[in-house]
## 1
Amino acid sequence: MDDSKFGKKDARGNWVPSARISYGPFFSWPPQATALREWLFGFPGYFLPWNVLYAVLAIVIWQFLTPSLTDFSADTGYWVGVILARNVVLALLVYGGWHLWFYVWRKQGTAFKYNSKWPRQDSSAFLFNNQNADNIFWTLVSGVPIWTAYETLLLWAYANGHIALLSFADQPVAFILLFFLVPLIHEVGFYFAHRSLHWPPLYKIAHKLHHRNTNPGPWSGLSMHPIEHVIYFSSVLLFLVIPAHPIHMINLASRLGLAPAQGHTGFDRAVTGEDKSMDISYYAHYLHHKYFEVNYADGMVPLDKWFGSFHDGSPESHAAMKSRIAERHR
Ligand SMILES: [Zn+2]
Ligand SMILES: [Zn+2]
């Protein structure tokens, strides 16, 4: 398994990608038509594979794993229980799947692994002295129930006519467009939620818990304090004001619930065959876990660039980060 084509290992054996973290051409000026086309339709690109995959997942969840709005309003309590169970199963499959691949079966050893060490399983910083057990606990005991609470609150509001419902038959173009706006809503919502969590008082009581994972694995993704879960999932409340279909809300909610798994694998890509690798790169967020004060967003909208907290992985970015910190402590 050759990870040296895409980066190199440093003295400690940590794999560092050679490409700098960059934003897609979506926000560059003047517009670059070819680059934009490739960024949108290439593989990996804006649509494929992940955004299309999450959209398909939302369709499957809505069609087969969610009650109709009439059923939901007739027996809300029962259906909340069913949706909670469904979300627990989804979390086990997705977080568990990534974890099995990389950390139990160790399918690719430390190839493409940002931190050469395996997460510690004997650290008193974590519940049960075990990072993974701690991460699973916060995900299933707090994360999934709060995700379910938001999702079912919104379903209740749709079912009882408290919010506008957009149908495919009436507005097909808006319906499809909204699907592909969800990733943007997700990213911008995440940036502001995350930025507020780094406000010292909130950091101390809530976000610190997530940041104990300096060497994250998939289960670290949703391992957060309940206060952080409440803030993190709150971007679904946007659907109280944006006319949409429950399928769009489910797209955002399930993405918030499941995407942190791939965002925290600790690997740059999953090697799936001889020379075939699947891009799961979240180096920006890995650097956030390593240095705390950089890359609050995931890297599609250049929010960190605009607000001066961008670290693209280069020595220059690193020096800039250090001088920002020194400046603040002066
Ligand atoms: Zn994180
Ligand atoms: Zn953070």
## 2
Amino acid sequence: MALTGLQIYKLLPQTNCKECGMTCLAFAMKLAAKQADLAACPYVSAASKEQLDAASQPPIRLVTIASDGQKVQVGNEIVLFRHEKTFYHPTALVVRIRDDQPLDEIRALAQRIADFHVEYVGIKLHLDGIALENTSGDETKFLAALEAVRGVTQIPLILNSSNAQTLEHALGKLQDTVPLLYGADETNLDAFAAVAKKFNAPLALRAKDLNALAALADKAKAAGVNDLVLDPLVRGYADSLQTFTQLRRLAIKKNFRALGYPLIAFPGNDVALAGQQIAKYAGFVVLDTFSEASAYALLVLRQNLYTDPQKPIQVQPGLYPINNPDGESPVLVTTNFSITYFSVANEVEGSGHPAWLLIADADGMSVLTAWAAGKFDADRIAKAVKVTNVEQQSPRKRIVLPGQVAVLLGEVEESLQGWQVEVGPREAVDIPAFLKLKP
Ligand code: SF4
């Protein structure tokens, strides 16, 4: 069980020396809320430290798989809902490759998975790994498939076999790689745990019953394997939602250590189910087959869930040339909220008219929100003009304000002496017509 702030306080020295930056009581409350590191207090006794260490561990263990410098980390979340706090470690999206396919098909598929990426509001999104499955049950085929995959990509791996010896031989062939081993059950746990311990690799455990899953986790831990992933063998909408939510609640609300590990989900080819599992609460989602359309939808969904809801996605303030502008081209100004930037940039680009896009720093807010918050005003626009030295690029000195802040016209004219200041359309979609009339 997690300790309360007062229980933690009783274990602290209670001298209020403030070396941790606060009083003992405040520090205890921060520890209870998992917002402070116990190491900040140098005076905790060894006996108290042991108790507090256990209490200060994250409720869901952080598990890492890695390959050739690429790292995928899941777990370590401390809330149930995104509005409470940001989710930090995005669900790893992984695609299965079966070892009973021809090797050239395996190579081609691995290459497509590794190469696939999505540009979304200036962020490059990609898949996280390949789950190589020993579908054939034949070790020689599995090792050949592994070699085929490694021949084309160093993407992180999940190795899936019911034979611990096959996994051991596969791990022996890998260098600078920490794959997830899937999946031990009560019939083979000892053999799987021995392999996981030998190679210091995380191990996925599977059991239908949660008590059995917790018992497996305790047993694996006693065998020396600390990095675990849980598969409660739920494959449908209702049971996934119910069981994954129950496991997350047990880990976070009850601090039930035996089930405080990331979860792995197998939605088959059902994109909607995969989406549900990303939202609640899978650490790994393994798709049966690769499709660009499914991967695109799931990567974008994941990106939207795993962003800080209090921090809008921003683009870098600055001057962006579109359609090869010159000194006669207009300067369109807007804010650095990424969706605003991409809406405006796409419309200007689509219009075919050259223009300079001046992005003012508005703390990542959209035009009206920034204006209402005092983050997009004449001073900020004048500062952006000065910092980017726009005059050198556009000596014609014609600047266009978003129509939604037409009210700024007078102030901007005052701040930007010598500039021709105009008001543009309210909506980005009307920019092409505006540029056609006033290129
Ligand atoms: S450093 Fe330790 S003893 Fe000093 S105030 Fe902080 S918690 Fe208390």
